[in-house]
Every structure is written in structure tokens, then in C-alpha cells.
Amino acid sequence: MIRHANRLIIAMSLLVAPARAADGGMPQLDPTWFPSQLFWLTVCFVTLYTIVSLFITPRVGGVLKTRANAIDEAIALAEKLKKEAASTRGNFEAAGIEARAKASQLIAEAQAEVTKEHTAAHQKLAEKLEAELAASDAEIKKAVSKATANLDAAAIPLAQEMAEKLLGGTVDEASVRTAIGTISKAA
After folding, report:
1. Are 151 and 158 in contact (CB under 8 A)?
2. Is the pLDDT of residue 47 over 70?
3. How far apart are CA 159 and CA 171, in angstroms?
4. pLDDT at site 78
5. Could you tell me the pLDDT band of residue 52, with boundaries at 50, 70 and 90?
6. Which residue among 22, 46, 138, 175 sits deepest, i.e. has the most Cβ atoms within 10 Å of its Cβ?
7. Mapped to the 3 state alphabet, what secondary structure does the chain carry?
């Protein structure tokens, strides 16, 4: 019940409030002031709207446009640099491939020249050794021939003396020489 009484008091005070405001309380709630209040509300709104639309909005729009242009320029520059980097990378890779190919070619040429020089040096050495071998062989034949001749010369008197002792007679030097020459040729 107390609740019901409180509600009734609140409702009556709301009905009495406009009457008290008109008596000297709050002029905002007095209906006679409404046209003046609407006039000043319109004047203030139009003035603020004009200030915002003529001064504040263009400045904010300019800042936003400048910012958007700066972002667009930064993006364009980044894309340009990205393309340049890709181009530079491609050029670098192409130069690397070309350098590898040239290095391979130079290595192949160097190997071919070394092989050619090695073959020429080997052939020259083989010719030199063959010439030395031929000269040595000739010297050996000459030494053998000389030694054989010396041996034959030393063997003739010895063979003659042995034949004389074995046969008990004299043997002529020409027949001993012929026999030793036949034996030397057979050996």
C-alpha cells in the first residue's frame, strides 16, 4: 500500500510541475517561451552547421585526402621498388648463369690447352728418349762389336795354342780365324 501511495504522489507532482514552472520556476517548460527557444535553436544549429561545413570539414577532408595520396604514393613506390628488385634479381641471376658458363668454358679451354701441352711434352720426351735409346743401342752394338773383335783377336792365339796342344801339331792362323768367326756369328 505504501508503494501505491508513493506512485500517486509522484504522478501528482508531475502534473503540478508545469504549473509551478509557469509561475516562476523553469522557463524552458513554459509554453510561451517555445517560439523563442525554437528560433535560437535554429540560429545556433545553422551557425554551427555553416562553421563545420565551411571550415572544419574541408580541413579534415584535406588532411584525409593528403593522407590517402601519401598512402597511394607509398604503395606505388613500394611496387616500383619491388619491380626493380625483381628485375635486379633477374639480372643478377642471369649474370651469375653467364659467369658460370664463361667459367666452364675457360676451364674447358685451359684443360684442353694443358692436355695439348702435356701431349706435346710427352711426345717430345718420347722422341728424345727414342733418340737417346737409338744412340745408346748404337753405342752398345759398337761396344759389342769392338768387344767381339777384341775377343776374337784374343781368342785366335789362345785357340791356336789349344788346338796345337790337343792335336799335337801346328794349326794355321787362317783356319783358326775362320772357325772363330763362324762360332761368333752363330752366337
Report:
1. no
2. yes
3. 10
4. 94
5. very high
6. 22
7. CHHHHHHHHHHHHHHHHHHHHHCCCCHHHCHHHHHHHHHHHHHHHHHHHHHHHHHHHHHHHHHHHHHHHHHHHHHHHHHHHHHHHHHHHHHHHHHHHHHHHHHHHHHHHHHHHHHHHHHHHHHHHHHHHHHHHHHHHHHHHHHHHHHHHHHHHHHHHHHHHHHHHHHCCCCCHHHHHHHHHHHHHHC
**Residues in the chain, overall count:** 187
For 45, other C-beta atoms within 10 Å of its C-beta total: 10
Q: Answer yes or no: is pLDDT of 128 > 70.
A: yes
Q: What is the pLDDT of residues 153-185, one digit of tens each?
A: 777 777 777 777 777 777 787 777 787 778 777
pTM of the predicted structure, to 2 decimals: 0.37
Residue 12: which residues within 8 A CB-CB, separation 6 or more?
none
Can you give the pLDDT at residue 65?
Answer: 95
* 157, 129 Cβ separation under 8 angstroms: no
